[in-house]
Design goal:
Elements (H helix, E strand, L loop, with lengths): L3 E7 L6 H11 L3 E7 L6 H5 L9 E5 L5 E5 L4 H13 L4 E5 L12 E3 L1 H12 L4 E6 L5 H9 L4 E6 L7 H13 L4 E4 L6 H11 L3 E2 L1 H13 L1
Parallel strand pairs: 1-2, 1-5, 5-6, 7-8, 7-9, 9-10
Antiparallel strand pairs: 3-4
Helix pairs in contact: 1-8, 6-7
Length: 225
C-alpha cells in the first residue's frame, strides 16, 4: 500500500525543512510529504515589495535559507491558491497549512487542515474559562491577533518572541511575562515554534503549552490511520 500523499502549503518558501521533521514525527506513520510555498521562485527584491504597510495583516515566515521575513497577507492570497492547485495536481490526498494565520478564503478541493481553525476550537475545549496566553513571532501582530483569540471568549494575554530570530532568553522572558499575568494555557502562535522552544516555555511558565506543528501532525495521523 502506497503512503498517503500529504500536501503542505507554506506562506514562505518550500521546503520547510525546519517544520517537516517534527510534523512527520507527530504524524507517526509513513507518508509522502509534498510542499509548495507562496514565495517560491521570487527574488529578494520581489519579496521586499510584499512588506506590510499600516493596517495590513502581518505574516512572519521563513525563506529557504532560514531568513525571517514579514509580508502582508494580501500579497499572497492568489499565490496560496496556486499552491493548492499545484499540490492537488501532484496527487496530494490531504492538504495542511504550515502557518497559523487566518486564510478563510483558502479551500482545498480535498481536505485542508488549517491550524488557526483547529486551535480556535481546541483551545476552548481544553480551557472553557480562564486566561489564555499566546506567544506571537512579532509584537507588530498583537493588535490583529488579539482579536482572533478573543473569539474564544477567554481572557487574553499576548506577548512576542520570534521562533526564527529569537534566542533562548527571549523565550524565557516571554514565558515569565505570561506566567506573571496568571495564564492557564499558552499557545505558540506560529508554525515556526519548535519542540525545544515549547519545552523552554512550559518549564518556565509552569503551565500547558500547545505547539501547532505537532498538534497538526497528530490530527493528520488520526485521520489517515
Amino acid at each position: 500500500m502506497k503512503p498517503v500523499r500529504i500536501g503542505a502549503l507554506t506562506i514562505g518558501q518550500s521546503p520547510r525543512t525546519d517544520v517537516a521533521g517534527e510534523f512527520l514525527e507527530a504524524v507517526g506513520q509513513e507518508v509522502e510529504l509534498l510542499q509548495c510555498g507562496a514565495l517560491d521562485g521570487l527574488s529578494k527584491e520581489e519579496i521586499d515589495r510584499m512588506a506590510p504597510r499600516e493596517g495590513d495583516y502581518i505574516l512572519v515566515t521563513r525563506l529557504r535559507d532560514g531568513t525571517e521575513v514579514k509580508i502582508a497577507e494580501r500579497f499572497i492570497h492568489d499565490r496560496m491558491k496556486a499552491c493548492v492547485r499545484t499540490l492537488k495536481q501532484a496527487g496530494a490526498e490531504m492538504l495542511v497549512l504550515f502557518c497559523t494565520g487566518e486564510f478563510p478564503e483558502l479551500e482545498g478541493q480535498v481536505l485542508l487542515l488549517k491550524p488557526d481553525v483547529i486551535m480556535e476550537h481546541v483551545v476552548p475545549g481544553i480551557l472553557p474559562k480562564g486566561k489564555l496566553g499566546a506567544i506571537l513571532p512579532s509584537a507588530d501582530q498583537i493588535p490583529l491577533l488579539g482579536k482572533k483569540w478573543e473569539k474564544t471568549g477567554l481572557q487574553i494575554e499576548l506577548t512576542a518572541a520570534s521562533p526564527y530570530s529569537g534566542k533562548e532568553e527571549d523565550f524565557r522572558e516571554a514565558a515569565w511575562s505570561l506566567k506573571s499575568r496568571g495564564v492557564d494555557l499558552i499557545v505558540l502562535d506560529c508554525i515556526g515554534f519548535t519542540k525545544s522552544i515549547k519545552n523552554i516555555i512550559r518549564n518556565t511558565a509552569q503551565c500547558p503549552v500547545i505547539l501547532p506543528r505537532t498538534l497538526l501532525g497528530r490530527i493528520v495521523g488520526e485521520l489517515i490511520a
